[in-house]
């Protein structure tokens, strides 16, 4: 067809107007053609974003097994056939990834060495109440719900209790610095600012600068998080193109930022008392990690009803319904590597070897992966970079905890659901939080002594969980935590045999007394109400998690600015997930699972830049049907 003298060239968009009888050089033709191209582009992008997750295959759902989903002991008969993936470790990084892969039609087996699934989300009962050592509060509640909703089974959807919501304006943290007025942190940025202005009069400029720095660093840091998902070359470009600002912030310590803002040691201590949430001190912590923690809780803090295990249950249910399994009392001895490719795992007991088709994921931590799960030869050949990097960082923070059972009425005893940060002495110019922490650590390590106070985080887990309170209204579970070096405790006992020496037991008794004194200093009314104190040391943590560093790798600038560890390794089909890939914390651990899923399912930086993410993709496909429907289908 031709209009006028010249034939129409259909490859040129503006020629469409001519085809519709408009003048070739008319503005109307150009507008029409432009709008057409624009609409096509918008429709294309929308269709692209609405697509199912990459790598998706329709899953076959089945009914749940009998019994508690979190305590299915390892038996060969429970290992599903034709496994696609084996995941080592049932922390949030392992479970979220496994549930995502399950929703995309893959059969996944999660192996957990502990007697219950959930990793740090585990809980245990004592004197009728439940203790939850590894989760005390979670912020950014909408994001938490969104992440769980993306891959969790709606049947076990977690419900949440907000700390301080009933009568205290969303109070989540209270800081006690010797005889200084306590600091109360309540939900909302304005509440935070008003409270800090009271404690730091005349320092409004510093406070505003601090808030601005928190916002800027947190935003700039996000691309660095994603960098861990890419292959080395892609990561190299990504870091140079998208992470300049993030790397700049990550290279600074909290102390350096406060100095730049003109703050002194007292300002620093008051602004950063939540340091124990990431395990560093102002002089050792990378600033964006601290910024993320402070901002994470600033809009309020929540605790899952039914305890943190409910967060693991919703994910575990998806995995079982998709034909996979989460098996406990299943310690993995070694990852099987053949010709540079991970093919399965060898179990500790009975010399059982399990194979899988698509890959092995270690969600047990970098330390366990390198020192316990891979042979020294495989580490030398493929993971020497990660090993050297880990050794250069040194040990992450370890802790002492006390699990205290209290009998009585919480209100009358002055107990509430917010956390308390107790510091024996107030900071002063020349006496910083770093020094307070160092003194505290030295005191906690003192053997044969009931002297010397240490800093302590105190949380009342059972008061945060309305279900627990309903069942045991007169019994309260308190958790106390302090920083402590692992070495003195490791030296006192044999880690492998779990045999504890008399000296170790004696030291634990003394620590019990010291925790009691601190508790009574904070809550004097508890004097005749404490019915039990049980102390846990880095050795206990090693027994339950197979590491002493509670938050994994240290959160120093050296670690945070490094491209390591990545989700991918030089061993083909061996992937990493868990807090060491991102940073410590429940939410970063979940993100590590999402990063690993992105890599495994084939997402790339272009997808991310167009807004197509693995988390969004999970919402585009159906979750598991209810168990009733599945049972009915099975009986047909
Ligand atoms: C004392 C404490 C308090 C905390 N408080 C909070 C808090 O209030 N809020 C918050 O957001 N975060 C908190 N965290 C941090 C948070 O709980 C963790 O960062 C996060 O849950 C870690 O998840 P993960 O996926 O890395 O794995 P983890 O939860 O560490 O799980 C790893 C799992 O791997 C298993 N494993 C190891 N080796 C083997 C093997 N050979 N075979 C089989 N399994 C193996 C371990 O048993 C473990 O279950 C706290 C952590 C601790 C320790």
Automatic annotation (TrEMBL):
Top-rank taxon: Eukaryota
Keywords: FAD, Flavoprotein, Membrane, NAD, NADP, Signal, Transmembrane, Transmembrane helix
InterPro entries given in the database record: FAD/NAD-bd_sf, Retinol_saturase
Keyword Cell inner membrane: no
SUPFAM superfamilies to which the protein is assigned, alphabetical: FAD/NAD(P)-binding domain
A Pfam family hit: NAD_binding_8
Transmembrane intervals: 27-49
Recorded family membership: Belongs to the carotenoid/retinoid oxidoreductase family. CrtISO subfamily.
UniProt-recorded name of the protein: 14-dihydroretinol saturase A) (RetSat A) (All-trans-retinol 7
Organism in which the protein naturally occurs: Durusdinium trenchii
């Amino acid at each position: 067809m031709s209009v006028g003298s010249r034939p129409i060239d259909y490859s040129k968009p503006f020629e469409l107007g001519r085809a519709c009888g408009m003048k070739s050089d008319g503005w109307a033709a150009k507008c029409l053609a432009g709008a057409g191209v624009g609409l096509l582009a918008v429709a294309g992008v929308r269709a692209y974003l609405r697509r199912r997750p990459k790598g998706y295959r329709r899953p076959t759902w089945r009914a749940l097994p009998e019994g508690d989903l979190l305590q299915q002991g390892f038996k060969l008969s429970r290992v599903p056939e034709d496994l696609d993936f084996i995941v080592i470790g049932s922390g949030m990084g392992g479970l979220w990834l496994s549930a995502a892969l399950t929703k995309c039609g893959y059969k996944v087996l999660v192996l957990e060495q502990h007697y219950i699934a959930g990793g740090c989300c585990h809980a245990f009962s004592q004197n009728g109440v439940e203790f939850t050592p590894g989760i005390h509060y979670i912020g950014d509640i909408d994001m938490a719900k969104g992440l769980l909703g993306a891959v969790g089974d709606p049947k076990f959807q977690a419900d949440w209790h907000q700390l301080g919501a009933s009568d205290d304006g969303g109070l989540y943290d209270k800081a006690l610095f010797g005889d200084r007025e306590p600091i109360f942190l309540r939900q909302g940025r304005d509440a935070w600012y008003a409270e800090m202005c009271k404690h730091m009069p005349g320092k409004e400029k510093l406070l505003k600068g601090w808030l601005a720095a928190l916002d800027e660093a947190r935003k700039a840091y996000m691309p660095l998080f994603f960098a861990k998902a890419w292959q080395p070359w892609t990561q190299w470009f990504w870091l140079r193109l998208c992470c300049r600002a993030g790397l700049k912030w990550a290279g600074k310590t909290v102390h350096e930022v406060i100095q730049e803002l003109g703050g002194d040691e007292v300002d620093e201590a008051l602004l950063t008392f939540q340091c124990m949430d990431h395990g560093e001190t102002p002089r050792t912590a990378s600033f964006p990690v601290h910024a993320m923690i402070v901002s994470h809780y600033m809009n309020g803090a929540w605790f899952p009803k039914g305890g943190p295990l409910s967060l693991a249950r919703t994910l575990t249910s998806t995995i079982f319904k998709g034909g996979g399994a989460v098996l406990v009392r299943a310690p993995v001895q070694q990852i099987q590597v053949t010709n540079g490719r991970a093919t399965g795992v060898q179990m500790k007991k009975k010399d059982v070897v399990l194979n899988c088709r698509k890959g092995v994921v270690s969600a047990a931590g970098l330390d366990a992966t390198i020192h316990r799960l891979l042979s020294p030869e495989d580490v030398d050949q493929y993971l020497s970079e990660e090993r050297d990097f880990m050794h250069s960082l040194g040990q992450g923070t370890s802790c002492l905890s006390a699990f205290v059972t209290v009998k009585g009425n919480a209100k009358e005893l002055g107990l509430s659901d917010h956390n308390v940060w107790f510091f024996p002495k107030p900071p002063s110019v020349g006496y910083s939080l770093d020094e307070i922490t160092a003194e505290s650590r030295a005191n906690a390590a003192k053997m044969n002594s009931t002297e010397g106070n240490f800093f302590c985080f105190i949380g009342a887990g059972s008061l945060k969980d309305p279900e627990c309170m309903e069942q045991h209204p007169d019994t309260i579970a308190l958790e106390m935590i302090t920083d402590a070096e692992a070495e003195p405790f490791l030296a006192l006992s044999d880690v492998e045999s779990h045999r504890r020496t008399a000296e170790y037991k004696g030291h634990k008794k003394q620590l019990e007394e010291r925790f009691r004194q601190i508790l009574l200093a904070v809550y004097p009314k508890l004097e005749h109400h404490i019915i039990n104190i049980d102390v846990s040391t880095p050795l206990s943590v090693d027994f339950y998690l197979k590491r002493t560093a509670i938050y994994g790798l240290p959160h120093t600038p050296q670690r945070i600015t490094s491209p390591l560890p990545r989700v991918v390794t030089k061993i083909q089909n061996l992937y990493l997930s868990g807090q060491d890939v991102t940073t410590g914390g429940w939410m970063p651990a979940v993100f590590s699972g999402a990063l690993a899923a992105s890599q495994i399912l084939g997402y790339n930086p272009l997808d991310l830049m167009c807004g197509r993410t693995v988390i969004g993709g999970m919402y585009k496909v159906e979750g598991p049907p209810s168990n009733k429907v599945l049972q009915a289908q099975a009986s047909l």
